[in-house]
Amino acid sequence: MFVSNPRGGPQAAQSRGDGDPTRPVFYYDLGDPECYLAAERIMSVMPVEPEWEPVLAASVLGAPRFQVDQSELARRMLALRLQPLRWPPGWPPDTRLATLTATYAKGGGRAVAFSLAAFRQAFAGGRDLAAQDTVLIAAAACEMHPTAVLKGIALRSVDSALDRACARARSAGVVELPAIEAGGQLFSGPDAVEAAAELLGAR
Fold it and tell me: What does the alpha-carbon distance between residue 31 and residue 99 come to, in Å, rounded to a whole number?
């Protein structure tokens, strides 16, 4: 787990996407299995519902640094009673299409539903998130119409929103995913959810 120095001040407060400077923020890339495990735990572990902020690892970190131990991931998924890990073909994928869709979904209040569906398509279903069909299946699972999705992700405003999210993550000091900004601190890595939850629970 990585914990940053405390952050705060007017600039940090203004960077919040939902206008609430006290709400935790969960930064994640849909192609990262560690982010998938964090996403499956976060709603039950965190005492405060965080804002879900989909980002592109390549933009935030400079490269998609998905260093994974497949056997350890499989063990942890079993412990969490998740479906067995199935690796998508050609992993890691180009997740820009899926992340644009998550950004579009966030505008309609469906970031959590879509992101969980996309994660499960990838790591429980073994589907490629770079494929349009996979993304549309995930969208359909949370009642997002394919035509609306395809039109939405083509909007310049959605593309700009994703760029802002990645810039926000960089400004927050994210150097590893998943990451959670909470209580003026930044937690990242496999234990980020539990560490952030402990801090917020203590307060």
Answer: 9
Domains detected in the chain:
2-202 (3.40.30.10)
**135 and 118 Cβ atoms separated by less than 8 Å:** yes
Q: What is the pLDDT along the chain (203 residues), one digit of tens a residue?
A: 555 544 433 333 334 455 566 899 999 999 999 999 999 999 889 998 999 999 999 999 986 556 677 777 777 777 777 777 888 888 888 999 999 999 999 999 999 999 999 999 999 899 999 999 999 999 999 999 999 999 999 999 999 999 999 999 999 999 999 999 998 999 998 889 999 999 988 65
User: Which strand (E) or helix (H) includes residue 2?
Assistant: strand 2-3
Give the whole-angstrom CA distance, residue 49 versus residue 25.
9
Residue 62 zone, left/alpha/beta (φ > 0; ψ -120 to 50; rest): left
User: Could you please report the per-residue DSSP string of 164-201?
Assistant: HHHHHHHHHT--SSSEEEETTEEEESTTHHHHHHHHHH
d(CA 134, CA 170): 28
